[in-house]
Specification:
The chain is of the alpha/beta class. Helix content is 49%, strand content 11%. The protein has 15 helices and eight strands. The protein has helices at 11-22, 34-43, 65-69, 84-87, 115-122, 138-142, 156-166, 179-201, 206-226, 237-248, 253-262, 267-272, 279-294, 299-309, 314-322; strands at 3-7, 26-30, 60-62, 74-77, 99-102, 129-133, 147-152, 171-176. The chain has an eight-stranded mixed sheet, with helices on both faces. Helix 4 links the parallel strand 4 (74-77) and strand 5. The longest helix is centred in the middle third of the chain and has 23 residues, at 179-201.
């Protein structure tokens, strides 16, 4: 049994905390709000984010981060990406033997940093950091729907420790050393999910979505290889696997935001009505700016950026993609 602190009581953090408890670990969950911590402890439910899931009685929630992290051997971070720079510096210094696990998907718009890099910049110590990504809708993980995911770290032994921590009969964990590719796959697929949702909302068909998914994978790979990732990583769970589920599932927040945009709703109104975060919006900003700076051709990403932030008509965006100059298909 290990002592694990989960930082972030949204749907993903809560689902992972449940999974860890079911593996027999002592789990403490940090909630930003005291009232939510009280509800989890008294009723064994998270009504704000996983209202229909019964949580293990052994799970303890805290609103004070010092209490939540006390005695931890592993610290799993599952906050929204934009909260990392405020949450991580507030963590007390822990021994170098404590492994941090990033379950956050996104890129930081101001710096183009991956989430493990943001965590590393803000940790007082030199702790190992393992990135955790793959096709894993929180609601399905919480309900023990069979799921496979990847734990990645350049230190393979650290990845194997996380694999052992979370592996279970309904939750299969693979290891990987390409942390760059695994993190980028989890972040960049959200842009393509927005595009798929926009196509759904605008009334396009399955042919359109298949084209977006396939060519979107090419764009993900272009960015990844530019930053040093192995292109083969994007054919795996954290690339193609996560891309497919996020583009196809009605439970995907990013696809749902795109669908609302495609129906004519404004981005600011959609985001204001959401209880959860659609990470693809910030990732689109960061990736579009990065591509312009480094002259990387990402036509789908550019189209999503124009629709989200420049009020481009979705039908016109698709028309512009379809009428680009004729090319030979190649991967990368």
């Amino acid at each position: 049994m290990s002592r694990v602190s989960v930082i972030g009581a949204g749907s993903w953090g809560t689902a992972l905390a449940k999974r860890l408890c079911e593996n027999g670990h002592a789990v403490r969950l940090w909630c930003r709000h005291l009232e939510l911590a009280r509800q989890i402890n008294s009723a064994n439910t998270n009504p704000a984010y996983l209202p229909n899931v019964l949580l293990p009685a052994s799970l303890r929630a805290f609103s004070e981060v010092e209490e939540a992290i006390d005695g931890a051997e592993f610290v799993l971070i599952a906050t929204p990406s934009h909260a990392l720079r405020t949450v991580v510096p507030g963590l007390p210094k822990l021994p170098s033997s404590v492994t941090f696990i990033s379950a956050v998907k996104g890129l930081e718009p101001q710096t183009d940093l991956r989430m493990s890099q943001v965590i590393a910049e803000n940790l007082p110590g030199n702790n190992p950091i393992v990135a955790f990504s793959g096709p894993s809708l929180a609601d399905e993980v919480a309900r023990d729907i069979p799921t496979a995911i990847v734990a990645a770290c350049e230190d393979l032994e650290a990845a194997r420790q996380v694999q052992a921590l979370l592996m279970g009969p309904f939750f299969r964990v693979y290891t990987h050393v390409d942390i760059i590719g695994v993190e980028l796959g989890g972040a960049l697929k959200n842009i393509i999910a927005l595009a798929a949702g926009i196509g759904d909302g605008a009334g396009f068909g399955d042919n359109t979505k298949a084209a977006l998914i396939t060519r979107g994978l090419v764009e993900m790979t272009r960015v990844g290889t530019y930053l040093g990732a192995d292109p083969i990583t994007f054919a795996g769970l954290s690339g193609m696997g996560d891309l497919v589920v996020t583009c196809m599932s009605k439970k995907s927040r990013n696809r749902s935001v795109g669908e609302a945009i495609g129906r004519g709703q404004k981005l600011k109104d959609i985001l204001a009505s959401m209880n959860m975060v659609a990470e693809g919006v910030r990732t689109t900003q960061a990736t579009h700016a990065f591509a312009q700076k480094h002259n990387i051709e990402l036509p789908i990403t550019r189209a999503v950026f124009e629709v989200l932030f420049e009020d481009k008509n979705p039908a016109q965006a698709v028309s512009d993609l379809m009428t680009r100059e004729a090319k030979m298909e190649k991967f990368g």
